[in-house]
Amino acid sequence: MKENLLEQLRFCTNLPSLPSIVLKIIDLAGNADTSLTQINHYISLDPALAAKIIKTANSPLYKSRYPVSNISQATGILGTYGVTTIALSFSLADSLVKQSGKKLGMAGSNIFWRRSITSALASRALGERLGMSRMLDDLFLAGLLQDIGILAFHALLPEDYPSVFSLADNHNALLAAERETFGVGHDELGAALLEYWKFPGYVPAACRYSHTAPGKPNAGINECVATSGYVTDYFLSQDRKEKIGEVTRIAEAYLGLDEHALIEVLEAMQNELQHVEDLFEITILNPAHLSSIVTEARELLIVHATIKVRELGDKIRHDGLTGAHNRAFFDETFQNEFQLSIQQGSPLSLAMIDIDNYKTFNDTYGHVAGDGVLVTIARAITEQIRQTDILCRYGGDEFALILPGTTLSAARHTLTRIMESIAAIAYKPNEVNTIRITTSIGLAVNMDKEKSFSTHREMLEAADRALYAAKHAGRNRIAEWNPSLTSLLKS
Questions:
Q1: pTM, to two decimals
Q2: Quick one: angle between helices 36-44 and 80-129, nearest 10?
Q3: d(CA 28, CA 35)
């Protein structure tokens, strides 16, 4: 069906038609030799269009220093190319709005053009934020026409398309339904229509890629137009809390814009929307509603940014394989917990946990199986400790467990549970073998029954020596630090 639909674009008499002034402007836009005189002449043939262009040149969108009263002055402000692009936007909108009312109904046409014009503004605002000052009018036109394929569908398939259009819950769902039902989406159909109308190449290209994710962030017309659709969906949605995360993700993935930059884009749209509404003679949002949308977006994006920072901090502080805290986190946290133990006179236990014969297991079954053991051990330990206890991957196959406020007897009880839990694991490195895992644990306790260490490094060394003693004594056991271990290990 796809090829049939694309072929029908050439012969369908039901397609929206372009007025002669639009056809001439398209021709002028594609001609490098177009002169200022030609532009002014053809625009002057349409007094309503000329009035809109003069109004545009005077609008805050273009920040003109002097009042503009005629087309020549407007061209001086907007530039020859800018005037042709703006004239094209107005002429098309004026003509197609009237025609779409017959195909979509007045309510459907209003929804369609509210989305189209908001997308055009969003595309322009994104480009302005990205420093694409020479392309703002191109971005507006491309954003305006990115969904023109929907009108083409209604014209080509007046019996079949309305049901697909009306049943789609959202814009992306509509595109998916089009592709499934007709073998082509409104992005590709719209691009083909714009090429048939001989639009400048960047316009059909932006339409074709309006729903395509770029390989990497890029500040181009296609990426701005594609992002503009998501920004528009946020603006016009009734459920904005659900969409703010998606808009943020798209803006970063497509254009490299963070939450703060996105807020600036939304604020620019808030400042410019009324001017665009006046130019196109359409109401998109009332001022109070618009203000509340931007305020809500600012609040939601601040929350979103805060969560993102926390997640990033959490990621930096955790071991990527096991999910336990990493060595850097241990070094900082153990020192702080030790100082609190000294200051408050509260007990602090530190256990160093080592997997028995891990190197042999890793060499025999491979690193993937070895990583699986580490993950399994970390999970087993986590299931046996309190939320206030702190498990860290100290390095390789060794874990450190900080137990704040824990006496020697309480630490013994916890570590015994951990050992038994690990020993009960029947780990399968492959489909054939099943192995048992054991651990050796060294324990040191501070501020319990007046026993204490002078520094956190001294306590860490004590726990490490106790671990060595447990391994020296045959593994699969808990060894507790006591002063005699020093002379034992030095002999």
A1: 0.61
A2: 90
A3: 9
